C-alpha cells in the first residue's frame, strides 16, 4: 500500500515537473524560434556598427540581438510567427519527460550495474575517498548519458519537426503544418534518415556536456572536502543541454537549396561547410558580431550575407 502511495506521489511530481517545463517552453518559444533561424543563417535585418567590447575594442558590424530580431520579425510578419513550431516543441518536452522517467526506472530496476556497482550511494561526500567519489560520479555520468541518449533519440523526430516548421519561414513556405502532418510528410518523403537527421552530433554534444559537468562537480566537491569547507547539500539534478546540429539535407525547403546552402550528404559535410563562420551561429544572443560576408541591400543598408553564393 505504501509503495503505491509513493508511486502515485512520484508520478504527480513528474507531471508537475513536465507541466512546468511545458509552460516555460511556451513562454520562451519566441527566443527558441529566433535562435533556430539564426542557427540556420537567416539574417534579414540590417547590421549596426559598434565596438567589440561595447565601449572599447575595434570597430565591427553587429547583427541585431535576439530581442531586436524578434521584435523586427514580429513587426514584419506578425506576432504569431514567433510561435511557429510550438506544438512540436511542447510534444517533444512531454515525450522527453516520460521517456526519461521510464528509462531511468527501467535501468534502476533491471540493470543497476550499468556504469559500475552502486557503492556508497548514500554516503556523504566528506566520508568517502577520492577514488570512491570518482567511481560514484563516473557511474552517475554513464547512467545519465544512457538515459539522455534514449530520451533524445525517441524525441528527435519531434525536434526535427520543430526545426522544419521554423525553417520554412525563410522561404515563406507552408509545407509543414502541425506536428503530426509534419512527421507524416518527413516519414513519407525521407524515411528514418529524415526523421533522425542531425541526431549523431546532438548525442555527441549531450554526452560531452554530461561528462564535463560530472567532472566539474567531482572536482568542486573534492576541493571543498580537502579545504574543510564542505557542507552537506541536497542532491540536485543538473540539467544540461547539448547543441543542435541543424541538418538541412533533403528537407525540401528553400533554405536547403542553393543559393542558401549546398546539399549536405551527412553531418560531416555540414560541419566542413559551417566551420569557417557558421558553427557558432546562435551561441550568442547579444553582441553578435558579423564575421562573414556583408552585402548592400536595396535600401542601401548593410546586411549579413550567409548564402552559398550571391546572384547579381
TrEMBL record:
Location within or outside the cell: Mitochondrion outer membrane
Membrane topology according to the record: Multi-pass membrane protein
Top-level division of the source organism's lineage: Eukaryota
Keyword set, alphabetical order: Membrane, Mitochondrion, Mitochondrion outer membrane, Repeat, Transmembrane, Transmembrane helix, Transport
Name of one Pfam family that matches: Mito_carr
Start-end of each Solcar repeat: 135-223
GO CC aspect terms: mitochondrial outer membrane
Gene3D superfamilies: Mitochondrial carrier domain
PANTHER family: LD43650P, MITOCHONDRIAL CARRIER HOMOLOG
Stated family: Belongs to the mitochondrial carrier (TC 2.A.29) family.
Protein's UniProt name: Mitochondrial carrier protein
Species annotation: Angiostrongylus costaricensis
Organism lineage string: Eukaryota, Metazoa, Ecdysozoa, Nematoda, Chromadorea
